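Encode chain A's predicted structure.
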Amino acid sequence: MAKKIVILGGGVAGTIVANQLARKIPGELRSREVSITQIGNTETHTYQPGWLYIPFDLSRPEDLKRPQRSLLDPSIAFVQDTIAKIDVKSQKLTSKEGKEYSYDILVIATGSVPRPDLTPGLAEAGHWFHTEEGSIKLRDALRTFTGGRIVIAMGVPHKCPVAPVEVTLMLDDYLRKRGLREKSEITYTYPVGAVHTIPAVAKWGAQTFDERGIKYETFFNMKEVDTKNKVVHSMEGSQVPFDLLITIPQHRGAQVILDSGLGEGGWIPTNKETLQMEGTDNVFVVGDTTNLPVSKAGSTAHFSADVLVENVVDLLTGHKPSHKYDGKVFCFIETGRNQASYISFNYTTPPVPPTPTTMVHWMKISYNKMYWLTSRGIL
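Encoded structure for chain A:
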């Protein structure tokens, strides 16, 4: 009987895994000894990091989307369905409509979602850029903004570790280009005692904020938003008034993970090296869905997917997973002024961002165009 590989999730992690597996086992797929099925809840694949560029009129929504089917190897079956339950004991998935999908090997790549609803008042008064709808709404708000107090606030956990710094510096640049910077006050808030959790980024970020006249307040854990008086309150008791509130809402894993009882907050306990779900041999987890002690970012999904594929092939051929993910992450940091920096780190080596340059900015812009090769498992 053919072995069934099911990949749950149609984002970057699941798509890379599907395509790389198809290239690793073409003979088995042709002989139907193995089948690969990807299940996604939408027919459209989006380049999620690109949403950051929409508010500043640096990209268009249509540039960030492709039909999911167009990105997959022809040997991969794609099913659009919404899975409501994952039963790892019986090795089956059940959709909201009651349809069942059995598997021999399961890859869970269900990602994470922003949850502004978890912070009172945030959904009504805040703006964010982690969804198409949110990025367009923020773009429209910035287009009509004529000056005033802008506050950047965030919840934890959230995807993309450097997004708070990026949106702040890109905002500063955007307002300068529109001649509004002198009419505007930018206040950046952060939950810990520095402007970032990564010490090297915090040191560089604070210096850059000082140079650009950006105020910042640390130990500011967003508690609630007073929509009437336009004030954001922290758990520590402080408050900051705003005319425009830009946020990075706290994120949670997919609802199906919570409903299936697979992990608190929607994060599945995962072996940090082999990427197997703790307590299982044939269930792997990749991308934001894991509880790994590294950033939830596109590059994390990419680098861990490379390792996961090798371990799935090991399992298919009767061997124990032998490849180990070292926690590698690489993130560009857009800094405005047509410049960018980056951070690269793993489980044991902390990052140190170099001085921003125009060349790194254009490397990032180029990668935005080449992303579709990544999702196809080529780049």
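The chain has two domains: 3-111+254-316, 115-251.
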